[in-house]
Amino acid sequence: MIPPAIRANPAGRRPAVLLVLLLLVGGVVWASQSVIALVEAGQGNAREFAIVYVGAFLLLAWQTTLAHLERPVRLDVGQWAWVDGLRVTVNVPVHNEAPTLLAACLWSLLGQTRLPQRVQVVVNGCSIEPYSRLLTEWQQGARALGVWAEAVQIEAASKRLAHLTTFLDDPADIFVTVDSDTVLDRNALAEGLKPFADARVQSVAGVGVALNWNRNLLTRLTNLWFVTFQLGLRSSLSTLGSVLVNSGALALYRSAVVHEGADGYAHETFLGRPVRLSDDSMLTTLAKLRGRTVQQPTCFAFTVLPERVGHHLRQQLRWMRGSFIRSWWRMRYLPLGSYAYWMHFAGWVNFVLSTIVFATLFVLRPAIDRRLVPSLLIIPVLVGYATALKYLLIRRDDEQLASQLGTFLLAPLVFLWSFIVLRPLRLYAIATCLSTGWGTRTGGVEVTGAAPKHLRQRRRSGRVRWQVAAVSVVAGCVAMGLHILNIL
To answer: Is the torsion defined by CA of 295, 300, 303, 308 positive or negative?
Structure first.
């Protein structure tokens, strides 16, 4: 089961940078003018609201600039020879996983251009019996390739204990965490190891993309949001070595990160309650305390996204609770002078202020001039398209260009879902943060599927970069035109 070839298109980055920034700068002016007009049309002058919007746009423009400056690490022959000599151990925790997905995951590890030295599957909190046949066949294949492969079972349903079962007594240089529903691109490990040529780098995040992207509208929207977040906000943090959370699908760590933080990782509590979620963000935080945390934008992993709304909301709720808990860690332990600390702080300030402004304008004292409604709707639509442009810079063999463009056009739906559904859900997650259990896949398999077949790689040369540039030009012209009409 071989995953489709997938790679970023670095050539598509540069032509769109200035155009995207033009769009965002235009949005600053336009949003400011629209909010002032909105409030003045209702209950008096309140320019402080405009300041909040301007601050949010400037933060977005800064992050967009840094995201476009991210470049994959490339090594010369001598550097690669050193990195290739690192000993690599992979852990695959399994809890109520579909056997077909686990099989695809494990065989993709044996299809790597750079094989790991050891892979251990840890079945936690469920029976190993449904996987016995595929594990036997997989171990035979691993031995033929010289990979030490094994499977063990532990009683506790704990991803953290599953990780430590593999890593605590292992002499490897690099530890790799891979979710059991993830299929690695054939170059994933080779690309993910490259940043470790820099001794300051303590962890590397892979880029997760949906394995089941075309299952329904929900998986398309979630994949668009997932990719946009990774190649947007996370890329901006990676440029300055300050990634705050790695993908659970695929992440690589120096062994010292796990060995030094093992006790806290295994026994974390929040207000006296044991924490079983947010394992990826905790490992990333431990890595950040030791040095640089980065993302390698050419290191890809295919992961399964929820196919039902209920599962999607439970997953988001778990992530949001974990994010809130981890925020206390970051505020307490990250150095006050670090970029990671202040970007994390700015993110929370932006969330709180934007929530207050929205509640004030639309709930507490609604003062909407109907003529301004189109402006208030079009602003986030254009910004959504600007931030989602990175989605077009990934090429995969199992998705046609027309389908990719169609998914990109759904960006406004992603914004509406985030604002109308996920924002209130985040408030609920904060209010219920003491529910620190896992919350998903506790009653059996919730997602099913299989690895896509490999398709012949298509060559697009410069087409994608010009499409990205064209979308930026159109969006920028529309934003400027509507701003001029607003002024007139």
So the answer is: positive
Q: Bigger pLDDT: 1 or 374?
A: 374
Cα separation, 49 vs 358, in Å, equals 10
* Of 357, 377, 335, residue with least CA distance to 478: 377
How confident is the model over 259-274, as pLDDT tens digits?
A: 999 999 999 988 888 9
Phi-psi bin for 303: left (phi > 0), alpha (psi -120 to 50), beta? Answer: beta
Residue with tokens 């890593």: 167
- Comparing 201 with 349, the larger pLDDT belongs to 201
The HSE-up count of residue 473 (CA atoms within 13 Å, CB side) is 7
Q: Residue 30: pLDDT band by 50, 70, 90 thresholds? A: low
For 273, residues 6+ apart whose C-beta sits below 8 A from its C-beta are: 434, 436
Cα 346 versus chain centre, distance: 19
Alpha helices in 147-234 (DSSP H): 159-167, 188-193, 217-229
Residue 409 has pLDDT above 60, yes or no: yes
Residue indicated by tokens 């159109």? 474
pLDDT: is 327 or 484 the higher one?
Answer: 327
pTM above 0.85, yes or no: no
Residue 189 token pair: 């490990």
Burial 182-203 (b: 16+ CB within 10 A, else e): bbbbbbbbbbbbbbbbeeebbb
DSSP 3-state of 170: coil
